[in-house]
Design brief:
Layout (H helix, E strand, L loop, with lengths): L27 E4 L1 E2 L18 E2 L2 H14 L5 E5 L8 H14 L5 E6 L1 H6 L2 H9 L2 E9 L3 H6 L6 H13 L3 E8 L7 H15 L3 E6 L7 H7 L8 H14 L5 E5 L8 E5 L3 H14 L15
Parallel strand pairs: 1-4, 4-5, 5-6, 6-7, 7-8, 8-9
Antiparallel strand pairs: 2-3, 9-10
Helix pairs in contact: 1-2, 6-7, 7-9, 9-10
Length: about 300
């Protein structure tokens, strides 16, 4: 059981924005670290001004106890921040055990992961995490093209993320892969589509989420666009790229979502059963003439 906390041992609470995948809207969010251990992707501002810090043992317990006092019957918990799987194994074990002590109805725990953090855990450790209740990891693949990943300054390769996803799946942990239309810009759009479809065919994630690349002011990506080093897709091209990607995907059972606010047309379904209907929606939108062919269109006010 969790003992009472020593008041002098508690660090100050974190106050920066807590992020979670759209699918975790009904989950209890418990922060176990601050920021992202890498924090170098050109398109991302989620943890821009947040120094990376793993919460100490007492701080993690405090967060769990406080959450349990508010929602003791919670069945779903998402561990924040940017790459919770990067925490040391002994710490993740303690966190998961404490969660089950405090939340008797807990059914699943989820978190963000990276290719690097997945490969840092051996197969035995991944099996152990699954046995302790870790059910899903969200992996930002973004693209299956190493050229595109290098442009985005991702701290991983396509092969590493494929291997990490396969190892997680073998341990019983579901993988929810995240990709971005427009990640390759104008120059690498075709390569982005073909190699992303290829990588996903090897990964075979349980869920596939598609976002649209949005250049956020102040990011290296936005600066590259201003300097003419990156040409973003137009509205029309973004929808066409998504249609091309869906057409190129190998067949495996998968929940598909493109309902993030960055997307022009919200879509959701089960692949491959719903692929024809999803493609029909995309092609009908392309045929309307409403989409801009020479510009990105209106971006959402916030992400």
């Amino acid at each position: 059981m969790i003992k009472s906390l020593e008041p002098n041992s508690l660090p100050p609470c974190s106050t920066h924005t807590m992020y979670r995948p759209p699918a975790e809207a009904q989950s209890v969010l418990i922060r176990v670290a601050d920021g992202c251990p890498y924090n170098g992707c050109t398109f991302c501002t989620m943890y821009k001004n947040v120094p990376y810090r793993i919460h100490d043992h007492y701080e993690q317990i405090q967060s769990i106890v406080e959450a349990a006092q508010v929602t003791p019957a919670a069945r779903r918990i998402f561990l924040a921040d940017g790459d919770a799987l990067a925490l040391p194994m002994h710490m993740l074990e303690k966190i998961l055990k404490h969660l089950h002590e405090q939340f008797p109805r807990l059914a699943r725990v989820t978190c963000y992961a990276s290719g690097r953090s997945l490969l840092q855990k051996n197969q035995k450790e991944l099996h152990e995490l699954h046995s302790l209740g870790l059910r899903t990891v969200y992996l930002g693949l973004e693209s299956g093209s190493d050229t595109v990943l290098q442009m985005l300054n991702k701290n991983s390769t396509s092969a590493a993320m494929i291997e990490g996803a396969q190892r997680a799946s073998q341990a019983g942990i579901a993988v929810s892969a995240i990709i971005m239309t427009g990640a390759g810009g104008q120059q690498y759009s075709a390569e982005h589509v073909s190699k992303t479809a290829h990588a996903l065919g090897y990964m075979r994630p349980r869920q596939l989420s598609c976002l649209r690349l949005i250049p956020i002011p102040g990011t290296p990506l936005a600066q590259q666009i201003e300097q003419g080093q990156f040409s973003p897709l137009s509205e029309y091209q973004s929808i066409k790229e998504l249609a091309d990607l869906l057409s190129a995907l190998p067949s495996w059972p998968c929940i598909f979502r493109a309902d993030h606010r960055s997307n022009i047309l919200p879509l959701a379904g089960r692949l491959p059963k719903d692929t024809p209907a999803l493609l029909q929606e995309l092609h009908e939108l392309l045929a309307t003439g409403y989409l801009l062919s020479d510009g990105p269109g209106a971006y959402p006010a916030s992400l």
